[in-house]
Amino acid sequence: MAVHAHPDDESSKGAATMARYAAEGVEVLVVTCTGGERGDVLNPKLADDPEVKRDLPGLRRREMAAAAAALGVQQRWLGYVDSGLPEGDPLPDLPPGCFALEPLEQAAEALVRVVREFRPHVMTTYNEEGGYPHPDHIMCHKVSVAAFDAAGDAARFPNAGPAWEPLKLYYDHGFSRSRVRAVHEALLARREPSPFEPWLERWSDADAEREVTTRIECSDYFDQRDRALLAHATQIDPDGFFFAVPRDLERAVWSVEEFELARSRVETQIPETDLFAGVRDAQ
Cα–Cα distance between 181 and 200 in angstroms, integer? Predict the structure, then answer.
């Protein structure tokens, strides 16, 4: 079970890994906490599209369905409203009724209900910083950790279904500094332009890089990941940085997706090459 804040997040974080496991016969469920109602239109080609202006929430749901089909996974909505990304100095208040302002216990119970119904062995989500500091990503982290801890306790949320204890919780690593640097240097070596130089300039040597415990070989599923990304047409610029790296170079230089093991109820050895390491032995 991969828990994400908005439709499109699942396609940019761990998507090829999900496609690989789904192709191998593992049941994979994406839980999307909000509908992305307050998201910006990031594809300039659709900025004036009449369907976007008429029904962005409905369009994002249709995009999510197409992305899930591209990855071969199931998908559920948790039903909360996008908080939007506050901008300005000082930052404005979050809008009433948004996901980030929901009481944690109520949102955790909603996710526990899905966990107990789907019965995942492994969950993935964002770290405590949200991957980046969007209020919905940070709330997604809090809700996911709370649900991971509570789902196996029959005394917690007794009306949310029979208890089920997931065994491992991971944090997604998207564009880690190591990945960005490796791809950037490979592009320069081929005398091709790199979109990542500004990224590397923003990172100082003093910025700690989070530990990677688990690397999943998934380059055979990059095409499915790309189709899922492109399905989110309002959110992904097909001429943007996601597609600026030639896929043959990416496969040669960085054929994995990375995760950080946050909790485990089974024995496992780090580093891992399988999110189900230790789980298969426990069955």
Answer: 7
Nearest to 28 by CA among 36, 19, 37: 19
Across 138-147, average pLDDT: 98
- What's the CATH code, domain 2-174+211-276? 3.40.50.10320
The domain segmentation of the chain, as residue ranges, is 2-174+211-276
What is the mean predicted confidence (pLDDT) over 245-270? Answer: 97
- Distance between CA atoms of 99 and 180, rounded to whole angstroms? 31
Helix 222-231, helix 15-23: angle, nearest 10: 120
3-state class (DSSP) for residue 281: helix
Print the SS3 string covering 157-222. Answer: CHHHCCCCCCCEEEEEECCCHHHHHHHHHHHHHCCCCCCCHHHHHHCCCCCCCCCCCEEEECHHHH
Q: What is the average per-residue pLDDT within 244-261?
A: 96
Q: Render pLDDT for 74-107 as a digit per residue (tens, 0 to 9).
A: 999 999 999 999 998 898 999 999 999 999 999 9
Residue 6 per-residue DSSP state = S
Q: Find residue 65's DSSP bridge partners.
A: none
**Exposed e or buried b per residue across 208-225, where buried means at least 16 C-beta atoms within 10 angstroms of its C-beta:** eeeebbbbbebbebbebb
Residues 6+ apart with CB under 8 A from 158: none
pLDDT (tens digit per residue) in 169-221: 999 998 888 899 999 999 999 999 999 999 888 886 656 688 899 999 999 99
Q: What is the DSSP letter of 259?
A: E
Confirm whether pTM is higher than 0.90: yes
Percentage of the chain beyond pLDDT 90 is 86
